[in-house]
Amino acid sequence: GAGVSQTPSNKVTEKGKYVELRCDPISGHTALYWYRQSLGQGPEFLIYFQGTGAADDSGLPNDRFFAVRPEGSVSTLKIQRTERGDSAVYLCASSPGANTGELFFGEGSRLTVL
Amino acid sequence: AQTVTQSQPEMSVQEAETVTLSCTYDTSENNYYLFWYKQPPSRQMILVIRQEAYKQQNATENRFSVNFQKAAKSFSLKISDSQLGDTAMYFCAFMIIQGAQKLVFGQGTRLTINP
């Protein structure tokens, strides 16, 4: 596609529920990133994929968070047993490859946990 | 660990004025990129300007320019002839060139351009 696409744009859920957030990167981009942006803060790194594998998941806050990219294109961020503190905007970015310094961001998914 | 600090939570100027946003960072690395991103209400991070640390010349993109002081670890953004469409959150960010290309962001500066 022309840009990074993220769905849903907004998601409201109840504490304890399971949530999936989807990212469709720019076609041909091998690198994919997830960031979390809490209200009034800068984005924080969660996980990085190079192709199908998670090359760096050091930013995932705990084992309730998991992400996959099974075919090296679309990625899904999965959050189990959601907590109110998970409320944030989840941003996805893609890059044509390693060491290019170019990340293209989507418009994010705003998650609200009641 | 790398850190990025933006000391101005909010700034406000009149249209057509020049405004400078401050950013400092801390790293022991020698090869890295620095960025300024703009985030309008649409939430999408839009790249404004990029600077490679090994380049001494300051990057410029039309009305946007940076003052990169490597020894002082300072990277300010100057917006000339500001326009109403420049109103947004601005984030300074750092990236080590090798490895995972993780961006480390500052806390942001909310810039308002007044008519």
Descriptive overview:
The complex is a heterodimer of chains A (114) and B (115). By secondary structure, chain A is mainly β. Helix content of chain A is 0%, strand content 48%. Chain A contains no helices and eleven strands. In chain A, strands 2, 4, 5, 6, 9, 10 and 11 form a seven-stranded mixed sheet that branches. Chain B is mainly beta and 115 residues long. The radius of gyration of chain B is 14 Å and the shape is globular. The interface between A and B is medium-sized, with 28 and 25 residues.
Q: Approximately how much beta-strand content do the residues of chain B carry?
A: over 45%
Q: How would you describe the shape of chain A?
A: globular
Largest sheet of chain B: 6 strands, mixed
Radius of gyration of chain A: 13 Å
Structural class computed from helices and strand pairing of chain B: mainly beta
- SSE order of chain B: EEEEEEEEEEEE
Radius of gyration of chain B: 14 Å
Low-pLDDT residue spans of chain B: none
Query: How would you state the average pLDDT of chain B, rounded?
Result: 94
- The proportion of residues forming helix of chain A, as a percent range, comes to under 10%
Topology, number of strands of chain A: 11
Q: Total strand count of chain B, please?
A: 12
Give a summary of the structure in a few sentences.
The complex is a heterodimer of chains A (114) and B (115). With 114 residues, chain A is mainly β. Chain A has strands at 5-7, 10-13, 19-24, 31-37, 44-50, 53-56, 65-68, 75-79, 88-95, 104-105, 109-113.
Strand-helix topology:
The complex is a heterodimer of chains A (114) and B (115).
Chain A lengths: L4 E3 L2 E4 L5 E6 L6 E7 L6 E7 L2 E4 L8 E4 L6 E5 L8 E8 L8 E2 L3 E5 L1
Parallel strand pairs in A: 2-11
Antiparallel strand pairs in A: 1-3, 3-8, 4-5, 4-9, 5-6, 7-8, 9-10, 9-11
Chain B lengths: L2 E3 L4 E5 L4 E3 L2 E3 L5 E8 L6 E7 L7 E2 L2 E6 L4 E6 L8 E9 L6 E3 L3 E6 L1
Parallel strand pairs in B: 2-12
Antiparallel strand pairs in B: 1-4, 3-9, 5-6, 5-10, 7-8, 8-9, 10-11, 10-12
